[in-house]
Design goal:
299 residues; single chain; 5-stranded parallel β-sheet; UDP N-Acetylglucosamine Acyltransferase, domain 1; 15 strands; alpha/beta
Length: 299
């Protein structure tokens, strides 16, 4: 087969498969030289394989949500969001085995390399897409569902950090198909519902219902998609729905409607007052005329 017939996508997939097999073999060789319980080997093999099982899905998720991505090979080499997930998977694997320092070190290397900070204790589902990624922070107890999208500058953090909260839930939980726009801050141990949209620069401090769209600081709900409207919500870049009106414009429109209503009531009151005034002035004029006629007759 000529080299021109080999697509970059197939080359990237082949390299990823070889890399996955190599790392799995290294882990298996390392565990073979250490004493372990009889039932431990099978479980570790499954967990190790799971570290690399979803790599292709995450690459495909990037290709489906970013029109600038042209090939899998480009995603692997040039997308810091995907690279950060690789570092996170390794760091999380170490963290779950109580190798806390090693996990934090791998996480720190990923932060320096990609500009994305993901704590190894966080829980991240499948097909997460971190676009651009610079400045993204995901805390230790944060949980992210499947098919979520985070843009640059997003923080999944906690409020009032202290040593007493070390063993408590401090960070938010994102459901499936959640989109968080650039610069948004989701702070606190609450849930963001499935299919929710968080607009750019929003500051979310309370629970978000399924399908809701949140904007502003502090964030407020400006729309909600019905749960039965579609099987799976459509992808909306930066969490922006063009069909949702601007909340400030909507408030101003309400004020203008109120002003028009008050003007109509004032005009009606003035018209009624004018009619009463005209009637009062007309009656004395007729009486005066009648009185004058009577005087002439007497005279």
């Amino acid at each position: 087969m000529a080299m021109s017939d080999v697509s970059p996508n197939r080359v990237a997939v082949h390299i990823l498969d070889c890399l996955s097999r190599t790392i799995i073999c290294l882990f298996n060789f390392r565990r073979a030289s250490l004493p372990r319980r009889p039932a431990e080997g099978a479980d570790d093999n499954i967990v190790t394989a799971m570290l690399f099982k979803n790599l292709r899905d995450e690459i495909d998720a990037t290709l489906s949500r970013d029109p600038a991505a042209r090939s899998r090979f480009e995603v692997v080499l040039c997308y810091p969001g995907f690279q950060a997930l690789l570092f996170y998977r390794m760091a999380h694997w170490l963290w779950m085995r109580r190798w806390y320092l090693a996990g934090r070190f791998v996480s720190h290397v990923g932060r320096v390399t990609t500009g994305i900070e993901i704590h190894p204790g966080a829980t991240i589902g499948r097909r997460l897409f971190i676009d651009h990624g610079m400045g993204v922070v995901i805390g230790e107890t944060a949980e992210i569902g499947d098919d979520c999208t985070l843009y640059h500058g997003v923080t999944l953090g906690g409020t009032k950090p202290s040593a007493e909260q070390r063993s408590q839930k401090r960070h938010p939980t994102l459901g499936n198909d959640v989109i968080v726009g650039s610069g948004a801050q989701v702070l606190g141990p609450f849930r963001v519902g499935n299919g929710a949209r968080v607009g750019a620069a929003a500051v979310v401090l309370q629970e978000v219902p399924d399908g809701a769209t949140m904007v502003g600081n502090p964030a407020r709900q400006v729309g909600r998609r019905a749960a039965q409207s579609e099987v799976r919500p459509t992808f909306q870049p930066y969490g922006v729905d063009p069909n949702i009106p601007d909340p400030i414009a909507r408030a101003l429109s309400g004020l203008l409607d109120e002003v028009q209503s008050l003007r109509a009531r004032v005009a009606e009151a003035e018209r009624a007052a004018g009619e009463r005034t005209t009637g009062v002035e007309t009656v004395p004029t007729h009486r005066a005329a009648s009185a004058g006629n009577g005087c002439d007759a007497d005279g």
